[in-house]
Amino acid sequence: EGIEHHLSWNSIDRIADLVQVMEENPDIAKKLEASKTHHNF
């Protein structure tokens, strides 16, 4: 099954928005990646 069966279309749209913002602002992605080294996720 695809992920769309587990998430609402609104959620999928928000994830797509987040991906777009991260693509347009690489520093955000770098900061997020750096923060993962400080947490045990």
Tell me the number of helical segments per DSSP (H or I, 4 or more residues long): 2
Shape assignment: flat
Radius of gyration: 13 Å
Helix content: 55-70%
**What percentage of the residues does DSSP assign to strands (E)?**
under 5%
Number of domains: 1
Protein topology:
Blueprint: H1 9-24, H2 26-36
Helix pairs in contact: 1-2
Describe the protein in words.
The protein has 41 residues and is an all-alpha fold. The protein has one domain (7-36). It contains 2 helices and no strands. The two termini are 26 Å apart.
Features of this protein?
single chain; mainly alpha; 2 helices; Fe_dep_repressor_sf; transition metal ion binding; protein dimerization activity
Task: Give a quick precis of the structure.
By secondary structure, the chain is an all-alpha fold.
